[in-house]
Design a protein that fits this description.
alpha+beta, 13 strands, four-stranded mixed sheet, single chain, elongated, three-stranded mixed sheet
């Protein structure tokens, strides 16, 4: 699930380097302008009033502001926001001391935005009452399933081919002994299916964001990324290897050892093969068991750059005696 990113600094009209005093002054100035009591029947003013209340609720609190700032300055308002796994595992309770104090009037009964709840795990009850009455008041939140999360996981081609157990470490939010939020490392054991492909997603049940109000946790999806390999390339289910041959091996034929993701194999090169020709090693590609792709061996004929006198004489003799005319 993704939601629209909210730029709280832009909503309050302050810089990201603004002090707490500057944030408070900006909020109070906007509150006087958009308060519902001063704009009866104006839904646009009510929406702005709720947005700035939410923005102030985050930016006035050093811990929530620090977490929010971890998103970085590169997000643009309106973009879809998907926090990394564990990032949104924050469960603040709002029990009074609303976002300004002493202004009077109601918040209109609306709740925090989906973006706020995605980042901070929701609030007990949401914004209610006047500015003096604060947020929430300890209402019970209904059980809500945690959000699913997705992370990219890069593996080597050999790992993708063979599959098997892997250890994955992630950063997630947790609470320290003093109750303050902190980052901790979470290690997961993952069993990769053999032949997993680039872009394939693996579901880890219950390893996503924690649920709210006793709800079950979401799932974590690993999106497989295949690391570049020095020898092999991948196209769909097939693995491609360039095999370099000498001119005489190509002309006379040969038996050569060819590397695969499952160890080297002996391959018979037929006489007279040309550069660009492809030979197939079946079942040495990617994909599930029984439906694996193949390894395609692409022939690349190479000639020596430096010749001894004897070698040059042999090449010259072959050029004079050969009837082969590739351009005819």
């Amino acid at each position: 699930m993704s939601v629209a990113y909210k730029d709280y600094y832009k909503i309050l009209g302050v810089a990201r380097t603004a002090t707490q005093d500057e944030i408070s002054k900006a909020f109070k100035k906007l509150a006087r302008k958009y308060h519902p009591d001063l704009n009866p029947g104006n839904p646009e003013a009510e929406t702005k009033f709720k947005e700035m209340g939410e923005a102030n609720e985050v930016l006035k609190d050093p811990e929530k502001r620090k977490l929010y700032d971890q998103l970085g300055a590169n997000w643009q308002q309106g973009q879809n926001f998907q926090p990394p796994p564990g990032f949104e595992n924050m469960h603040f309770q709002f029990t009074g001391g609303g976002p300004g104090g002493g202004m009077g009037g109601g918040f209109g009964g609306g709740g925090f935005s989906d973006f706020f709840e995605t980042l901070f795990g929701g609030a007990q009850g949401g914004p209610r009452g006047g500015f003096g009455g604060g947020f929430g008041g300890g209402q019970h939140m209904r059980a809500r399933r945690g959000q699913d999360a997705e992370v990219s996981y890069e593996i080597g081609l050999e790992q993708a081919y063979s599959g098997g157990p892997q250890s994955l470490s992630l950063q997630e939010q947790a609470y320290g002994p003093d109750g303050r939020p902190m980052l901790q490392t979470k290690t997961l054991k993952v069993n990769l299916p053999p032949g997993v492909k680039d872009g394939q997603k693996i579901r880890l049940s219950g390893q996503g964001s924690p649920g709210l109000g006793g709800g079950e946790a979401g799932d974590l999806y690993l999106k497989i990324r295949l690391a570049p390999h020095p020898q092999f390339k991948v196209k769909d289910d097939n693995v491609i290897l360039d095999l370099h041959l000498t001119p005489w091996e190509a002309a006379l034929g040969a038996t050569v050892r060819v590397p695969t993701l499952d160890g080297a194999v002996e391959m018979k090169i037929p006489p007279g093969i040309s550069s660009g020709a492809r030979l197939r090693v079946r079942g040495k590609g990617l994909g599930p068991a029984g439906r694996r792709g193949d390894q395609m061996v692409r022939i690349m004929i190479q000639t020596p750059k430096e010749l001894t006198d004897e070698e040059r004489q042999l090449w010259e003799k072959m050029a004079q005696t050969s009837s082969f005319k590739p351009r005819d």
